[in-house]
Specification:
By secondary structure, the protein is mainly alpha-helical. It has two domains: 217 residues, Citrate Synthase, domain 1 (Orthogonal Bundle); 102 residues, Cytochrome p450-Terp, domain 2 (Orthogonal Bundle), CATH 1.10.230. 50% of the residues lie in helices and 5% in strands. The chain is built from 17 helices and five strands. The strands form two sheets. The chain has a three-stranded antiparallel beta sheet. The protein has a two-stranded antiparallel sheet with strand order 1-2. Helix 1 packs antiparallel against helix 8, helix 10 packs across helix 17 and helix 13 packs parallel to helix 16. The radius of gyration is 24 Å and the shape is globular. The structure holds carboxymethyl coenzyme *A. Carboxymethyl coenzyme *A (CMC) binds next to loops. The site of carboxymethyl coenzyme *A (CMC) has 20 residues, from loops.
């Protein structure tokens, strides 16, 4: 069996043989297909890139039909149960699980970079009291690039690793500052005696000089949530990270762009939208009416559906269990009953079944964050912390990939043909 595709162009009757590799053809192989020699050649049209591979990657594998998610080959369920977020971060960035010694060095180097320049803190203080934390987060990540001009040397592997470590270390500090600002509370500096997740919780909630009493259930839950959110192959924000990175921009600027893409309610902003939706529904008895509005196309059932998963999102299953562990400590979030009823009805309803719409990672994560005492506006920020690791792993892979070039899609131009300018005085 030949690994080729034979295409007959019915416009000309000509036949072409195109190589097939990894079940994919190269779009550029279509350019030879022309009616006249002067033609541009055949292109593919794929808004939203639903069937276009933009890269070859060795980081994350997803099988959307089977509900499988693996980082560097390791199933997400095993990582969530047996690993830690710091270790998963190492795995995503370096490709292999660390030895004990590598892990110690990794954690020590991240601890070394958790502090941000005082000017970043002052810049943050200038935001309005009610500034959305994600807006603050995006702009201060971008501002970091001005503190590290050396980050422009993207071709140097050692330099890239330094910037990756800096970013992974500083993102929780910025996130905690965003929260403290929105609460009108003084910012807490990092405590490098603590682990990654503990330190973040402490920076969020510590009051005065008293150590923050870390609840193991919270630390464990947040660490699992961070693992589940760390990467998700070529999603909207990772693609933005790669698009900006493809122009050799520094990783701070690229990561700010990726975070901006994450902010949207169809992507990482969905967990915020889920909570708003649950509050709007308000009561279990209102669920059937809300489902009818979804089916009529008036509203979307936020936290449901996924471009890739056409079965239960494996992350949502783990999050549901994590939520139970947190609610044992905090008491049951009253919105949980509404969420469970939405899920029950949607999973039985023909509209959702036919479209293969299942709960995604965002359906339950917001309930956990809320139980921990975090406001909904912080939810996308909480998504951005672990996803920064995925973005950086994707960026590093992009820079090392010799086949990659600056991203520059084509268009199908359907606008006016050439016409002459008319001065204002001559227009009707
Ligand atoms: N509620 C109601 N109907 C929906 C929903 C939903 N949440 N999602 C999709 N549909 C319908 C949609 O109306 C369409 O129906 P029809 O064929 O009759 O026009 C069909 O299902 C296919 O939808 P689509 O918009 O073409 O699918 P997509 O792959 O472009 O969109 C999605 C994927 C995640 C943007 C979408 O499912 C959605 O808007 N979900 C709600 C937002 C959400 O939870 N986003 C978080 C995604 S997971 C976290 C992350 O990775 O960021």
């Amino acid at each position: 069996m030949a690994d080729t595709l034979t295409i007959t162009d019915n416009r000309t009757g000509k036949t072409y043989e195109i190589p097939v590799e990894n079940d994919t053809i190269r779009a550029m192989d279509l350019r030879q297909i022309k009616v006249q020699e002067s033609d541009f050649g055949l292109m593919t049209y794929d808004p939203g890139y639903t069937n276009t591979a933009s890269c070859k990657s060795r980081i994350t594998f997803i099988d959307g039909d089977e509900g499988i998610l693996e980082y560097r080959g390791y199933p997400i369920e095993q990582l969530a149960e047996q690993s830690s977020f710091s270790e998963v971060a190492y795995l995503l960035v370096h490709g292999e699980l660390p030895t004990r010694e590598q892990m110690e060095t990794w954690e020590a180097s991240i601890r070394m970079h958790t502090v941000v320049h005082e000017n970043i803190k002052r810049q943050m203080e200038e935001f309005r009291y009610d500034a959305h934390p994600m807006g603050m987060m995006i702009s201060t990540i971008a501002a970091l690039s001005t503190f590290y001009p050396d980050a422009k040397q993207v071709d140097c592997q050692q330099n890239r690793m330094l910037q990756i470590t800096r970013l992974i270390a500083k993102v929780p500090t910025l996130a905690a500052f965003c929260y403290r600002h929105s609460q009108g509370h003084p910012y807490n500096y990092p405590d490098n005696q603590l682990g990654y997740t503990e330190n973040f919780l402490s920076m969020l909630f510590k009051m005065n000089d008293n150590p923050y009493p870390l609840l193991p259930a919270f630390v464990q839950a947040l660490d699992v949530l961070f693992i589940l959110h760390a990467d998700h192959e070529q999603n909207c924000s990772a693609s933005v990270m790669r698009a900006i990175g493809s122009s050799d921009a520094d990783p701070y600027s690229a990561l700010a762009g990726a975070a901006a893409a994450l902010y949207g309610p169809l992507h990482g902003g969905a967990n915020e939208a889920v909570l708003k939706m649950l509050n709007e529904i308000g009561n279990v008895s209102n669920v059937p009416k809300f489902i009818e509005r979804c089916k009529a196309g008036e509203v979307r059932l936020m936290g449901f559906g996924h471009r890739v998963y056409k079965s239960y999102d494996p992350r949502a299953k783990i999050i549901k269990r994590t939520a139970d562990a947190v609610f044992e400590v905090t008491g049951r979030n009253p919105l949980l009953d509404i969420a469970l009823e939405l899920e029950r009805i949607a999973l039985e309803d023909e509209y959702f079944v036919k479209r293969r719409l299942y709960p995604n990672v965002d359906f339950y994560s917001g309930l956990i964050y809320q139980a921990m005492g975090l406001p909904v506006t912080m939810f996308p920020v909480l998504f951005a912390i672990p996803r920064a690791v995925g973005w950086l792993a994707q960026w590093n892979e992009l820079v090392e990939d010799k086949e990659q070039r600056i991203q520059r899609p084509r268009q199908i131009y359907l606008g006016h043909g050439r016409r002459d300018f008319v001065p204002t005085s001559a227009r009707p």
